Amino acid sequence: MNEVVENPAQEQNRELSELVKREYKEGFFTDIESDTLAPGLSEDVVRIISAKKNEPEFMLEYRLKAFRKWQKMKEPEWAHIDYPKIDFQDISYYSAPKVQPQLESLDEVDPKLLETYERLGIPLEEQKMLANVAVDAVFDSVSVRTTFRETLSEAGVIFMPISEAVHEHPELVKKYLSSVVPVQDNYYAALNSAVFSDGSFVYIPKGVRCPMELSTYFRINEMNTGQFERTLIIADEGSYVSYLEGCTAPQRDENQLHAAVVELVAHKDAEIKYSTVQNWYPGDENGKGGIYNFVTKRGICKGDNSKISWTQVETGSAITWKYPSVVLQGDHSVGEFYSVALTHNKQQADTGTKMIHMGKNTSSTIISKGISAGHGQNAYRGLVKVLKGADNARNFSQCDSLLMGDRCGAHTFPYVEVQNPSANLEHEATTSKISEDQLFYLMQRGLSEEAAVSMIVNGFCKEVFRELPMEFAVEAQKLLDISLEGAVG
Amino acid sequence: MLKVQDLHVSVFGTPILKGLSLEVNPGEVHAIMGPNGSGKSTLSNVIAGRDGYEVTSGSIEYIGKDLTELEADERACEGIFLAFQYPVEIPGVSNMAMLKAAVNSMRKYRGEDEMSAAEFLQLIKKKAELVQMKQEFLKRSVNEGFSGGEKKRNEILQMAMLEPTLALLDETDSGLDIDALKVVADGVNALRSPERSMVVVTHYQRLLDYIVPDHVHVLANGQIVKSGDKSLALELEERGYGWIEDEVSGLQEAS
Ligand SMILES: Nc1ncnc2c1ncn2[C@@H]1O[C@H](COP(=O)(O)OP(=O)(O)OP(=O)(O)O)[C@@H](O)[C@H]1O
Ligand SMILES: [Mg+2]
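^ inputs. structure came back:
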C-alpha cells in the first residue's frame, strides 16, 4: 500500500492553508454577509473590500489598477531565502474589524508569553492590553490617546489610521499614495495596494517639529493592523518627525504572511526618522510556525537638504524580506540606513537597502549588522545607484556579520551602479565570530557566559542602537538578549 | 592561599606544564621569570580557568577550594584576577559599562546589592586617578585603539576596581615606558595588604625594584626549576637563564 508522504514544503503549505482556514472559521460571528470573505482573490473581492470600507471612488480605481498589475506579475525568487510556496488563492483578503476573544485575566495567558513581557519590563496594564485581557478602568487608554491627539492637532500634525485619512484628507492621500512605491513596484507591493487593510497616515505641516515621537504611546493600538499594512508619512518643508514602528513584545500573530508597504516623503529641508523594532514570532527551533514578512519600505528625499533615516532592529519573523530604501532626489539630500538583523534557529533574513542618488551632492550611509546563530541565515543585499546627474554623490557602506556557532551563515551582496564619475563610494565588510578570547576576558572579570555574550553582541550593534530613541534602544537590547538565549554553549 | 601541586597541563593535547608546584601565602608577592615559551602564561591561564587548558594531573587549590571545579567567572568572583599579557579589544562596549557589569556581577555573587550609579562613578574616578588614566578612556570601547601601554594601564585600573584577593599579572610591565612602569607599580603596591597575594610574571628585574617580591621563581620547560629571594632576579638579569638550565640538566644527569 502506498503511503502519501508530504515533503516539508507541502507540509508547511498545508499548515498555512489551515491557519488561514482556521481564521475563517473562528474569526467571525453572526453577520455572515459583512464579515469574512471566502479565501481567494479576484476583481470582485477587491471591489467588495473597497465597498465594505466605504471608500471613495479614487480608492477603488487605485486598488483595481493594482490588482490588474499584480495578476500579471510573478512572485520573486531571487531572494537568498527558502520557503514553501504560498497559495495566494488560499488566503482570505477581508476579515473586517477583527475582534479577538477577550480574556478575563492574565491567568489565562500563555505563561511563556507573560514571562517574556516580564523580562522586557512591560508594565502590567500594558501587558494586559498586549495579551488582550480586559483592562482596569484605572488605565484609561482612551483619554491618554485623546490627550496626545490634542497636542498633535495643536501643532497641526495629522496622525490617523489611513482608512480615516482616505475620508478626511482625500487630497493628500490621492497626491501621495504610491507616489514613492508605484503599485507595480514589486509583487508584494502590488498585492498590498490591491487589498491593504489599514495602517498609519502622518502629515507634518511646513516648519513644524513634531512635538513627540509618534507611535510610542500608541503602540497598543497598533496591534491589529493586519497582514497588509499600509503606512504613508509626509514631512512638508522644513518639518521633522520621528516615527516608531512596531512593538518589542512578541506577537503571536495568526497571519502568516505579512506584506506591508511604507512610503515616506520628505520635502525641502525636512527630516524623517523611521525606527522599527520588530519581534514577531519567529517560529520554533525547527522552523515551524512563524511569520513570513515581505515588506516594501521606501522614502523619497524630494526637496533639497532633506533627510531620511531608517533604523531597524529585527529579531522576529521566520522569513524576512525587506529593503528600506531612499531615493535622493533633492540636492544635498541625505539617506541613512542602520540595521541590526538577528537570525536564530531556522530563521532566514534577506534585508538590506537601496540608495538611489539622483540630486547633486547627495550622500548616504549604510550600517548593517547581521547576527546569525543556530541555523540562522542572514543575507545583506544592498544597492547603491548613482544616476547621471548626481554629481558628487557619496556613499559609505559598512556591513558587519557576527556568527555564533558554525551552522549559521552570513552572506553579503553589495551592488553598485554608478553612472557619474564624480561619485565617491566606500564599502567595508567584516565577518567575525565571538572570539574565545573576548569571552574569556569578560568571564575573567566576573561576567557569566550569557552576560559576556550579550555584552559582546550589544557592542557589535552599538552604532545602530545609538540611532534609536532612548527607550527603544533599551528595549532592543533586552530583546536581543532574550532572542539569543541558548545560542551559546 | 594558592597551592599548586605537581601540576600537569596540556593545551589542545600538547603537554606544557610538567609537574609544577607553587605555594603562595596571604600577603606574599611572588615573581615568576623564565624564558619565552616556558609556560608562564599557561600557568596564569590555567589558574584563571581558561577553556582548552586541561589539567591532566596534579591539583590547584585556592583558599581551600579545588579550583578545577569552578568556571572562569566563578573563579573571578572568588577573587582571582588576571591582568592579561595581551588585553583583548571589545568593540562597542565602553570600559565603564564593562567595569560596572563586572563590579555588580561580583557583588551579586557575594550576595550584596548592586552598586549605585553615583557610587560607581565616584569610585571609578578615584581609581582612574590612581593609575593616571584620563576620563575619556573610561568612555572608550574596552582596549579598542589603546596603545600597548594604555592597555596595560587599563588592566591595572580594572584590578584596582575589582580589588582581587589573588592577582596574577602576566607581563604587565612589558612595553611600558619608565613613567608608566611607576604608575603600574604604584597601582599594584596600593593593593598590597596582608590578605592579598600576587603572582607577577615578568622578564625584567626592573619591575621588581618597584614591586619588591618575597619570592622569585624560574620557570623553564613547564617546571619551576629554581626559587630564591629577590637577589635571584638580579642574578638572572646578569647571567641569563643558561646557567640554570645547565644546573638542572647537570642535576638530572647526576641522578
Ligand atoms: N593554544 C596552544 N596550542 C599549542 N601550543 C600552545 C598553545 N598555547 C600555548 N602553547 C605553547 O605552550 C608553550 C608555553 O606558552 P606560554 O604562553 O605559557 O609561554 P610563556 O612562558 O608565557 O612565554 P612568553 O614569555 O613568550 O610570554 C609555548 O611553547 C606555546 O607555543
Ligand atoms: Mg606569556
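Chain A has twelve helices and 19 strands. Residues 1-34, 135-143, 216-225 of chain A have pLDDT under 50 and may be disordered.
thumbs up if we can close this ticket
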